[in-house]
Write a structure and sequence with these properties.
11 strands; 5'-nucleotidase,  domain 2; alpha+beta; single chain; 5'-nucleotidase
Length: 260
Amino acid sequence: MVKLRKYYRFSTLFITAFSVFLLVSCGGNKYYNSKIEGKQIAITEQAGEVAAIDNFIKPYREHIDKELDSVLAYAPETLDKSKGEWQTTIGNLMADMTVEMVNPIFVSRENKNIDICLLNHGGIRAVLPKGDVTIRTAYEIMPFDNSVVIVELKGTEIREMANYILKEKKPHPLNGLKIVADKKTLAVKSLTVNEKPLEDSKTYYVVTSDYLSSGGDNMNFFKKSEKLYDMNYKLRHLIIDYFKKVDTIPVISSKRIILE
């Protein structure tokens, strides 16, 4: 150990002295870079894996895979966001589970109930396949770190929401709000919130994501909210908790938007 320390000190002194020598000896000359050359080297599988690194990572990867593939529930059929014009089974599930999981928290914190849930169709990134439902399923459906928030909106802003949904013509996940519209003009005929007629001056509590609450996907009506409640709850975690709660995933085909 003593010899190594002496060798280390000697090496350090030698390198330092040599560096000073180079700086002094080159002090009188100026060098300029006139040309830079390079070439692209593709990274391919031909290079192979470094066994030591792979062996180090392997147990962690296996542990993560085991966790992600833990079975939480069962889906009797595939839920696909592409199958449905105004609502889809996976969209209905997303909206309904959000209310089911978040409303008890909102009641306990604020002594208030959620009236409506609105999420975005584009936020659902994968199908929920028939068969075993796992933690990996939740990550595939919701890969984003969006959080759950609740915003206060007046009835007039709920009308804006309904007009937005009809104009978009996308099956955005919706719960609590029932829209009846003209099948030709898409003009709103009636709006009900939990089976009661919408009141323009009434305050409604809408659960959504932090992304949408700031006007994401052009949902600018959310920005008119005067108060926002942060639930400190990731949407993905909500999905996982719901999967753990139920044994079989329900297939929800109820209509939230009706054209007549």
